[in-house]
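Sequence in, structure out.
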Amino acid sequence: MLTRRTTLALAGATLATPALSQGSDFPNRPLRMVIPFPPGGGSDILGRLLAQRIGDALGQPVVPENRSGAGGNIGTDAVAKSPPDGYTLVTVFNTIVVNQFVFRSMPFDLKKDLTPVARVALAPTVIAGGPKLKARDLAEVIAISRAQPGSLNHGTPGLGTITHVSAELMDAMSGGKLTHVHYRGTGPAVTAAVAGEVELVSAPGRRSRGWSRAASSGRWATSPPPTAR
């Protein structure tokens, strides 16, 4: 049983497992925690912290495993197709909802193949500027994107991620146009911005704020992700 001590309270992260059918002696062996994004990002850090806490609570090791790609679909699909015994977990993010409207077909049925366990985290979204960005604030970014549509490259953790959708929403609301470059997770996206591959990056707040400072950019703006009403 998960208690408040084992749920970490970050962008709409939820712990899920295949549709369950488990015995009364559960757990009697190590569990697996699939993290559907690459190492180095907020999802990876959260998944590893969560694996440690759950392992401590259950008295069995929980082994983290990164399986990234397709906005989290690859790792999540691996869990959906695993035996429904409760020994395979996955940390899913708001991308699991968005992906249903981004991809023409999904490799798993969200409602039938996975059982939600708990919401474990919330985080704001940050738009951060790398060292190549000449704009001093978000207002100037929008002005450039209006005057020179597509001239600014914007890195995202993947197609259909909430940070990608948020940036597309900003384009729609501001009348500007960014060129969105999709990476295989937060770590690669922010690293690309620090290296000057892209001028902008969107990522969960705490991680990109730290990288922005490391790049001596000092230009970042935090805003909450869009919420349904």
